[in-house]
Amino acid sequence: MDLLEAWGLTVVITALVFDTTASNSGVHRGAAKLLEQQLDRKVFYLACRHHILEVLVGAVWENLFGKVKSPENPWFKHFKDVWTDLTTDNPTTLSIRQKWLNKKKKECKEILQEILRSEKPPRADYREMTELTLIVLGKHASPRNPLESSWSHSSGQVDGQKPVFYEDVHVC
């Protein structure tokens, strides 16, 4: 808050963009709520939709592999440890034996390909999710390397304005 005041930004903050973790969005002690209290006025909350996908993936993970009983997922730790040894030129695809599930897989691939071909393509993060899902389902989506995140090239700008960062809360 001191930095925001020093730069004279407290009077121009109208919205907070943040992921939906409790530490950011908690109604009593979340970072967004605490900033709003220090500003002594209401601001517009823009909870990031990108992180909603994590909730969906988490539900699928729990269904397939069971509940993770510790804050650090041991499978993710292993994945992080072997990351540099992975090759991205020929990713492994999802192998399904059940006939009804293969039918659903085919339907999903058709829908996702239609999304990518549409006249109004999805924004970069949804396009990336669509391309990665197609790879898992066994169909390469585009000639560029889909494992290279579009987020890594983002300037972090919103309407041409560079955000100020407060932990994981972006102040615009």
TrEMBL record:
Q: Which UniProt keywords apply?
A: Signal
- The highest taxon in the source lineage is Eukaryota
Q: What is the annotated signal peptide range for this record?
A: 1-23
Name listed for the protein in its UniProt record: Transposase
